[in-house]
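Practice problem: ATP12-domain-containing protein
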Amino acid sequence: MLGVVPKRWATSAADASSNSSIKTSIAGRSRFYKQVGIKSLNVPWDATSTTDGNDNVKSPISAGVDGTQSATGVHHIPLDNDTISLIKMLKPRCPGVDDNCWYGVTLDGRKLSTPMGQTLVVPSETLAMMIAAEWDSQLKQIQPTNMPLMTLACTTLDQAALHPKHYRDEAINFLRTDTTCFLADPTEDRLLHRRQKQAWQGLHDFCCDRLGGSSPTTALGIEGILMTRKRGSEKPQTGLPHPEILTELATKWIYSLDAWQLVALNSIANQAKSFLIAFAILESNGINISNNESSGVVACPFPDITKVSEACRVEEEFQISCWGLVEGGHDYDRLNCNIQLQSANLFSKTILLENEY
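Answer key — structure tokens:
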């Protein structure tokens, strides 16, 4: 067990159930459990559709922001689950690994469920411990925003494993509108242009080395808006016209990922507004499943997550250097950026390290 909460802060599961009519909001529900732990469980594709009765704790976190399961972006579990597809998406794609050990989180000895009603189970004892620690750190009230690893795990099980196309398409869209490919016009803002080049040139060199030897297309100032416009049947989608080989290899790489890495990719890309930044992080963690040819000469430009955060916030930090920091605004943005990047990186790396040869 990870810990015990003082009785004055804890209520029983029965009390929580009886007060469910007034405690169904996504955040702020009183902590209803005393002890948190982890438990070795079966693979998720053997018990994916529903939880098994009294042995599970219904998740106090809803799938939608409105407290229901019907919010925008929430995809429901198909009635005809394909077990083969689930195995393909949920089994970590680490060469040489035949069997994985799976673990769940327990609240007062009962297995925790995901917002969509599945048993929460992950292919890493360390990750399970970290998710359990997030639950144990909830004091008087449950705050889902303070549980980023729990969010990533549930997104994998409830969404990405069952609806991978949506997450693959989202990742590809980030490549077309990658923020690191839009630079300020040096004739209009020379200092910002210089900072962008310093922050992103190493990233572009790394991605060029790993993705077919072609550099991503970049645009300056208003040129970027013009280049991304949809133009007739020859350009059916908006976005920068990256070299064909780069787009093909990036798409192949995306399709090579399991659901865990796909969620990490999208989480980083969403925070950074950049597929290339997310690609560089996962590549440096050891994701090279598609066996793309590369010289391996160009090192990852991000030795740590601090450098990643700096690359994500070039324009914001430039404005702060010019006009000053707004307390309660810029500082919170920095903190949230670091939390999201660190969580997704740790989520990806932990599963990889624990499922090596």
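Discussion: Strands lie at 3-4, 29-30, 35-41, 56-57, 102-107, 110-112, 141-142, 182-183, 219-220. Students who identified this feature from the tokens alone can consider the problem solved.
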